[in-house]
Amino acid sequence: MARVVVDVMPKPEILDPQGQAVANALPRLGFTGIADVRQGKHFELEVDDSVDDETLAKIAEGFLSNPVVEDFVVRRLPA
Amino acid sequence: MRIGVITFPGTLDDADAARAVRYAGAEAVALWHGDADLRGVDAVVVPGGFSYGDYLRAGAIARFAPVMGEVVRAVRGGLPVLGICNGFQILCEAGLLPGALLRNAGLHFVCRDQRLRVERTSTAWTGGFEAGAEIVVPVKNMDGRYTAEQSTVDELEGEGRVVFRYLGANPNGSLGDIAGISSADGRVVGLMPHPEHAIDELTGPSADGLRLFTSVLGSVLA
């Protein structure tokens, strides 16, 4: 078994109102110097060794992300 | 004329969609998400709600339901399909319409009576409207901000495939005030506002929405 991480983020040109809301809240909470926040999704998959990178890419592109508005990165974590 | 109305786990507006179908004078046929069977219907409505709890993304899981495989197949043969709200999100996720619906720019769930302009009448679902007609139907959603690559929006605008546009304040920050779009052949239409809630002045802000359902009768019988 291996642990695979898939990070999904809104594309840079896509308006991210949730990230903006977090960014706008930080100064009110007394945290300064944070210029921008983008909010995405983080998936952790427990994957059998037989699952190849191509399959993982298909899962990330065809299901976990929507390529119209999101980018994704797939990483295998070291055991 | 038989019009199918799909129910997924978490669908809310299937009863009102079926009522709108009956008001229009057609037979409403209940379709179940788990059945790969359209029961021979002449058109399909994918109604609103929160299919699969909107988990992952609105519409992302519903698009893989067995019934949606049949819808995608039937669309290739010209089946008229109307996606309302969550149904619009599902049609975009399924690739039957371009673009995506994202969280409202104001981060609020917006629920109000909304003025719209009917921009395209050469679709299976809007043939009964006058071009440029202004209508009022409810809008109620959290993820209604229509977004697509600029090239896609340019294509939709250039080909006249923007079917409905918000009038007055845009409720969600959608590009170009887009409220609804169609496929190139006009058989598939998706919109965020809810025409099925505006079919009788006793129970809605107008009866304007009924015309989508009467329009499809004309288009199928023609």
Automatic annotation (TrEMBL), chain A:
Name the Enzyme Commission number(s) assigned to this protein. Answer: 6.3.5.3
Q: Which UniProt keywords apply?
A: ATP-binding, Cytoplasm, Ligase, Nucleotide-binding, Purine biosynthesis
The entry's localization annotation reads: Cytoplasm
GO molecular function terms listed in the Swiss-Prot or TrEMBL record:
ATP binding; phosphoribosylformylglycinamidine synthase activity
* GO BP term, pick one: 'de novo' IMP biosynthetic process
- Please list the reactions this protein catalyses: N(2)-formyl-N(1)-(5-phospho-beta-D-ribosyl)glycinamide + L-glutamine + ATP + H2O = 2-formamido-N(1)-(5-O-phospho-beta-D-ribosyl)acetamidine + L-glutamate + ADP + phosphate + H(+)
Q: Which pathway does this chain act in?
A: Purine metabolism; IMP biosynthesis via de novo pathway; 5-amino-1-(5-phospho-D-ribosyl)imidazole from N(2)-formyl-N(1)-(5-phospho-D-ribosyl)glycinamide: step 1/2
Domain of life, per lineage: Bacteria
Q: Name one Pfam family in it.
A: PurS
**Gene Ontology CC terms:** cytoplasm
Purpose: Part of the phosphoribosylformylglycinamidine synthase complex involved in the purines biosynthetic pathway. Catalyzes the ATP-dependent conversion of formylglycinamide ribonucleotide (FGAR) and glutamine to yield formylglycinamidine ribonucleotide (FGAM) and glutamate. The FGAM synthase complex is composed of three subunits. PurQ produces an ammonia molecule by converting glutamine to glutamate. PurL transfers the ammonia molecule to FGAR to form FGAM in an ATP-dependent manner.
Assigned protein family: Belongs to the PurS family.
Q: How does it assemble?
A: Part of the FGAM synthase complex composed of 1 PurL, 1 PurQ and 2 PurS subunits.
Q: What name is this protein filed under?
A: Phosphoribosylformylglycinamidine synthase subunit PurS
What organism is this sequence from? Actinophytocola xinjiangensis
What is the name of the gene encoding this protein?
A: purS
Automatic annotation (TrEMBL), chain B:
- Which residue stretches, if any, does this entry annotate as coiled coil? none
* Origin: domain of life: Bacteria
Question: Which GO CC terms are listed, alphabetically?
Answer: cytoplasm
Q: State if Transferase is listed as a keyword.
A: no
| Pfam families (alphabetical) | GATase_5 (PF13507)
Where it mainly occurs, coarsely classed, is cytoplasm
What does UniProt list as catalytic?
A: C85, H194, E196
Respond yes or no to whether keyword Cytoplasm is given for this record. yes
Q: Which reaction(s) does its UniProt entry say it catalyses?
A: N(2)-formyl-N(1)-(5-phospho-beta-D-ribosyl)glycinamide + L-glutamine + ATP + H2O = 2-formamido-N(1)-(5-O-phospho-beta-D-ribosyl)acetamidine + L-glutamate + ADP + phosphate + H(+); L-glutamine + H2O = L-glutamate + NH4(+)
- Which pathway? Purine metabolism; IMP biosynthesis via de novo pathway; 5-amino-1-(5-phospho-D-ribosyl)imidazole from N(2)-formyl-N(1)-(5-phospho-D-ribosyl)glycinamide: step 1/2
NCBIfam families named in the record: FGAM_synth_I (TIGR01737), PRK03619.1 (NF002957)
What is this protein's function? Part of the phosphoribosylformylglycinamidine synthase complex involved in the purines biosynthetic pathway. Catalyzes the ATP-dependent conversion of formylglycinamide ribonucleotide (FGAR) and glutamine to yield formylglycinamidine ribonucleotide (FGAM) and glutamate. The FGAM synthase complex is composed of three subunits. PurQ produces an ammonia molecule by converting glutamine to glutamate. PurL transfers the ammonia molecule to FGAR to form FGAM in an ATP-dependent manner.
Subunit structure, briefly? Part of the FGAM synthase complex composed of 1 PurL, 1 PurQ and 2 PurS subunits.
This protein's name? Phosphoribosylformylglycinamidine synthase subunit PurQ
